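Field reference: sequence -> structure
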Amino acid sequence: MAFPLDSDTVTHGIQLAVAPVFLLTAVSGMIGAVAGRLARIIDRARTVEDRARDSSNTEFLARAYKELADLRVRGRLANGCIALLTFCAFLIGLTIIVLFLGETTAYQISRWAVWSFLAGVVCFLLALLCFLAETVIATRLLNFHMLKR
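Structure field:
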């Protein structure tokens, strides 16, 4: 593999490869936010399950099972969102490697950088849709509980 030690080429390669890193920052922030939401979903599900075990009120149990079903859907959406964000980060990391190698070696692999970057952005957009769906369900669930009181 030809690896030139020309500092201008290496510097330009680094500058070119650093641009997608900003997307990685957004992805890591999103993973943190969604992981926090997932933790709250799990905590709420445990609380509802514990209360349902101690209750014999059929009306309460019906509401509890409905809420647990909603929490299960929210949990799956959050897990899907985290999976898409993780795959997005992987693809952006691959983009960075390909851009750097394409700039600093004789290999013509920049076409792969375009496709890996676009696939990463598509994963990010799909993750945003999962996040939106999860928050809509959470808000609907909140409104439902407020009407029951």
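Note: The longest helix spans residues 58-104.
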